[in-house]
Design goal:
Blueprint lengths: L1 H11 L2 H26 L5 E5 L4 H11 L7 E3 L4 H7 L4 E5 L3 H6 L5 E6 L4 H18 L7 H6 L10 E4 L10 H17 L4 H5 L2 H7 L4 H27 L8 H25 L3 H18 L11 H7 L3 H15 L6 H30 L3
Parallel strand pairs: 1-2, 1-3, 4-5
Antiparallel strand pairs: 3-4
Helix pairs in contact: 2-13, 8-11, 8-12, 8-13, 8-15, 11-12, 12-15, 12-16, 15-16
């Protein structure tokens, strides 16, 4: 019983304990609530672009479009790719040339479905809904142009088959994102515990009187954290490799490295400010969950307030996931060098900033007083 009293006194005598127990959870709930509220306010926005310019096609598509009055489905122009990249549309349905003629002749027709890289989870959900709807309507009167003109019912007209660009399978859309999230989580959690143990055992004070240089000590901590998190990312990549993610191997490896560098530095920054394992673990876990929200995998980014979306442009995990999705959905040519260099510059700047601050903080603790 005495040990329990001593342990409770030791913990609650520190002001930081109350910050960890009360302030951080409240902040986490408030910030997390912003992201989760975006799910409730999400409105699916699907654009329709017709390459079939014949009068009969305009009439047929116009009749079908007239059935949707809620703003979910809308006409778009040739700039629909830019709208998808900005997240203003969750998906675009492209009606190809000869679509109406195919319906009249009773042939199997196809409609191209192009998802957005911003809220891919909503795009995937919409794709599955449309695909099932088309399957259920196949053979019925809905897609029979004679019904649209003469209310004539026939069971011989198949519904259009919904296809994606480059035969994209949504089952593997999220694989690259998960690879980066695993790398991020490992780097952050390991980094958050780097200096805490040395502080608690007073080993960090030994560095100041030993022969080892502090810069070597600090650099070894950082490099080990980077190496372990990179290995975890590579293992995750090898696990997903058979699924054919439609992403360049070099691009995945580079983004794994950048993800590891930044989040290792962030974890070390947390460790440099933490006095014990309790604080470092809670801060590391809270940051990990918050960054998962920010990545755009679980939440609708386009429905967040504009100032939050502008802030996400400086969050490396969001930018890295976005670049992978761009390449996966639109091909390697969609990721230009300017976008990649901008992401690299943000990561490099933040990584150096966290490392410099961490170095100075830990260095001060090793300096004899």
């Amino acid at each position: 019983m005495q040990f329990i009293k001593y342990e409770l006194k030791r913990i609650f005598v520190k002001p930081s304990t109350y910050i960890v127990l009360f302030v951080i959870p409240v902040l986490f709930v408030l910030i997390g609530g912003i992201f989760f509220n975006s799910l409730a306010s999400s409105n699916l926005k699907v654009g329709v672009y017709s390459e079939d310019k014949s009068p009969l096609s305009k009439f047929t598509v116009g009749v079908v479009m007239s059935l949707f009055r809620g703003g979910t489905i809308q006409y778009v122009g040739k700039d629909y790719l830019e709208l998808l990249k900005k997240g203003e549309l969750h998906a675009v349905v492209v009606i190809p040339n000869g679509f109406t003629n195919g319906l009249f002749t009773g042939r199997q027709t196809e409609i191209k479905y192009i998802p957005s890289p911003v809220d891919t989870q909503l795009s995937a959900a919409a794709y599955l809904v449309f695909q099932k709807m088309f399957e259920d309507l196949s053979g019925g009167p809905f897609f029979n142009p004679k019904v649209l003109q003469q209310m004539y019912t026939s069971s011989s007209v198949p519904a259009p088959k919904l296809v994606t660009e480059n035969d994209l399978d949504f089952d593997r859309v999220f694989a690259p994102s998960l690879i980066l999230l695993i790398t991020m989580f490992v780097a952050l959690m390991i980094g958050a515990s780097t200096f805490v143990g040395d502080k608690e055992t007073k080993f960090i004070r030994v560095i100041s009187v030993g022969k080892a240089r502090f810069s070597q000590y600090f650099l070894s901590k950082f490099l080990v954290t980077v190496a372990i998190s990179c290995i975890s990312g590579l293992v995750a990549y090898l696990v997903f490799l058979p699924s054919d993610m439609s992403v360049s191997v070099n691009d995945v490896l580079v983004l794994i490295l950048f993800t590891s560098l930044f989040h290792s530095a962030l974890g070390i920054f947390v460790s440099s400010l933490s006095r014990n394992y309790l604080i470092s673990n809670l801060l590391g876990t809270a940051l990990s969950i918050l960054l998962i929200f920010s990545s755009g995998i679980l939440t609708s980014i386009s429905s967040l307030p504009r100032f939050v979306r502008n802030m996400l442009n400086f969050v490396p995990i969001y930018n890295s996931v976005y670049l992978l999705r761009l390449e996966q959905l639109f091909g390697a040519g969609s990721v230009n060098m300017q976008m990649f260099l901008k992401n690299s510059a943000v990561i490099t700047t933040l990584t150096c900033g966290f490392l410099i601050v961490s170095f100075l903080v830990v260095k001060r603790e090793t300096t004899p007083r």
